[in-house]
Amino acid sequence: MIHREEMTLKTKGETQVVDLTEGVRALVRRSGVREGTVHLFVPGSTAGLTTVELEPGCVADLRAAFERVAPRNAHYDHNERWGDGNGFSHVRAALLGPSLTVPVADGAPLLGTWQQVVLVDFDNRGRDRKVVATVMGE
Amino acid sequence: MIHREEMTLKTKGETQVVDLTEGVRALVRRSGVREGTVHLFVPGSTAGLTTVELEPGCVADLRAAFERVAPRNAHYDHNERWGDGNGFSHVRAALLGPSLTVPVADGAPLLGTWQQVVLVDFDNRGRDRKVVATVMGE
Amino acid sequence: MIHREEMTLKTKGETQVVDLTEGVRALVRRSGVREGTVHLFVPGSTAGLTTVELEPGCVADLRAAFERVAPRNAHYDHNERWGDGNGFSHVRAALLGPSLTVPVADGAPLLGTWQQVVLVDFDNRGRDRKVVATVMGE
User: Fold this and answer.
1) Inter-chain contact A81–C114, Cβ cutoff 8 Å?
2) What residues have CB less than 8 Å from B113, skipping those under 6 apart?
3) pLDDT in tens, C58-95
4) What is the CATH classification number for the domain harbouring C77?
């Protein structure tokens, strides 16, 4: 059984961390899949997916780490070529990755108690994003 | 065909790198799946999954890199709010990610010769961990 | 429906970024799968997979970020033990991860317009690489 669904969301960018957990829970329910996996993927090259304990402290700390790895105001060849100023966004997104798979058990994503599924939008402006969810199983 | 199984393990934390390879090999065998994939997922927000050549040098080097990206003793907002001192653990886990999928061929995970499947426990204390494995295929 | 195929490629290493997009598109077509996912995995512990906007600026910027996280000429315990000088390659590969899954819709990988599937070869010499693709769906 395969169920594909697109989640659409408006983001603000600047390493915004957006909670997808309830949306994922709802679409897994709609899929009718009881046992299997839900795969999430963000098309585009300036956002990524992961899980995190979604409280303001962790969000600030995660942002600080990305600032260490790919500082917003470092030199980026991408900026020189394209002038859109989001070189840091591309690097951060490629490091985090666009893909995440979560097990489904008893019709629900099997997450830890304080573990949320999040999209991190690294772009330097707001975007209309979509996340493609594919639930597979029985 | 879908086979879900939970691996349980006691970890020590502090960016401990734990070999899951034999456990994964065994559960793929038990699943009866010959061709497909095995998906691994760690519930919780202070551990992650990846592959590495598991020799003490690489383990030390990987720890040093995490110390560069999210130093244990940097300032973490999470620590100020919650007082549990594991802000660095949350950041490292979110960067590495909780999810890994490995192909299954001829009833075994298809890994490189010196490539092990590992859980990295970033917490600042020992934990009872589980890793959820989902084998899908035929 | 499950279709496994190996892509073989010659790489140069040194954090070379190799475009796999057309190869993935072709093998998804050959698989006959219209709806589902394509999972990619690189056996070995000195290469990884992700997506990126594949233009020379982003490639240079991504390399610079890996140099920040795991500098080529830092001290690596792996190098002292094994003398092969690719300690930085192991660390970079473990951080990026060997696994990527992309949704398949209407018989094609569902990627963003400027989003390419890439292998990053971190080794310090050229290699014969294979990437294992598993297309699952209907």
Assistant:
1) no
2) none
3) 999 999 999 999 999 999 999 999 999 999 999 999 99
4) 2.60.120.460
